[in-house]
């Protein structure tokens, strides 16, 4: 049952709106850079490097269990993204306009979110004393950052291929952009939602499935689907076609194409069963915690009735 608190509801909507706005900003700036760079691959590489680093840094605020620190960290990262677009890319009026508008709106939304959570925390302080084990949160952030680097940083290798490579098609680069986006936003909401879920369970309450938990599960699922279906299948097809046309065997392009075939084939074979196991494990775990919590509440009610 999704939480029904008015303030929690709008706080979750604001959080999701920030994520969606981030995606829209990245897609718009990508097309601007693609159009105005005049096939300048250096600019396109810089853009994807910025996305990779921002996606990696976006995991860091989740280390802290405190909302105001998370919000400040997120705003600093957004400001760093703005500076990167303004300083590293060519001075384009369109890029400046899109980046500045996006940063302004996201800062306002972050401020509204922390105001809402602060007011809610004043009324129910005890419900928000959870996840204070920074070391435990750091472990999840570290694992997520390593997996993000392994699966997404390898996509950067395609940016250094020859200009006529099929891996430079807009369709494929959009897929890379999306695989940068979804995992970078799934960790924070998942950590917060799971922390609340465990807190409610440990304090004798029936755990509630939050909107942010659903959002993080959707993002994680979309990442798995996109990586193992369109990205990997397209990568295998492009890799085979490029190997047939390659003129310099055993060069950089040849190594990247062969490596991509091995990597994407492994992803197609491993990701679907892993996703099935992950969904089954997550659903079973949450379901058992809710059943056990309900059973404990019934036992307590029966004990109080007998007394």
Describe the model.
The protein has 307 residues and is mainly alpha-helical. The protein has eight helices and no strands. It is flat and about 75 Å long. The two termini are 32 Å apart. The model is unreliable at 122-131 (pLDDT under 50).
Low-confidence stretches: 122-131
Number of strands: 0
String of helices and strands: HHHHHHHH
Mean pLDDT: 77
Q: Approximately how much beta-strand content do the residues carry?
A: under 5%
What is the CA–CA distance across the termini?
32 Å
Tell me about the biggest sheet?
Answer: none
Number of helices: 8
**Computed CA radius of gyration, to the nearest angstrom:** 22 Å
Name a few traits of the molecule.
mainly alpha; 307 residues
Please summarize what this structure is:
With 307 residues, the chain is an all-alpha fold. Helices cover 79% and strands 0% of the residues.
């Amino acid at each position: 049952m999704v939480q029904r608190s008015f303030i929690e509801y709008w706080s979750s909507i604001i959080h999701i709106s920030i994520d969606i706005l981030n995606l829209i900003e990245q897609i718009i700036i990508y097309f601007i850079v693609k159009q105005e760079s005049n096939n300048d691959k250096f600019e396109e590489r810089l853009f994807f490097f910025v996305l990779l680093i921002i996606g990696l840094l976006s995991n860091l605020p989740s280390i802290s269990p405190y909302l105001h620190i998370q919000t400040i960290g997120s705003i600093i990262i957004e400001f760093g993204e703005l500076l990167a677009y303004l300083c590293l890319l060519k001075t384009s009026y369109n890029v400046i306009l899109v980046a500045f508008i996006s940063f302004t709106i996201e800062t306002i939304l972050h401020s509204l979110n922390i105001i809402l959570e602060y007011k809610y925390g004043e009324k129910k302080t005890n419900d928000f004393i959870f996840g204070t084990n920074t070391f435990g949160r750091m472990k999840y952030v570290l694992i997520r950052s390593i997996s993000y680097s392994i699966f997404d940083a390898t996509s950067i290798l395609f940016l250094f291929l020859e200009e006529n490579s099929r891996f430079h098609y807009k369709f494929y680069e959009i897929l890379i952009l999306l695989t940068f986006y979804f995992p970078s936003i799934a960790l924070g909401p998942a950590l917060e939602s799971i922390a609340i879920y465990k807190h409610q369970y440990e304090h004798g309450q029936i755990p509630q499935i939050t909107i942010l938990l659903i959002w993080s599960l959707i993002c994680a699922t979309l990442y798995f689907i996109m990586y193992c279906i369109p990205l990997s299948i397209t990568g295998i097809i492009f890799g085979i076609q490029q190997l047939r046309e390659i003129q310099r065997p055993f060069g950089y392009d040849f190594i990247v194409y062969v490596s991509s075939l091995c990597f994407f084939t492994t992803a197609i074979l491993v990701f679907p069963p892993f996703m099935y196991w992950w969904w089954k494990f997550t659903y079973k775990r949450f379901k058992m915690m809710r059943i056990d919590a309900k059973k404990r509440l019934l036992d307590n009610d029966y004990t109080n009735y007998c007394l």
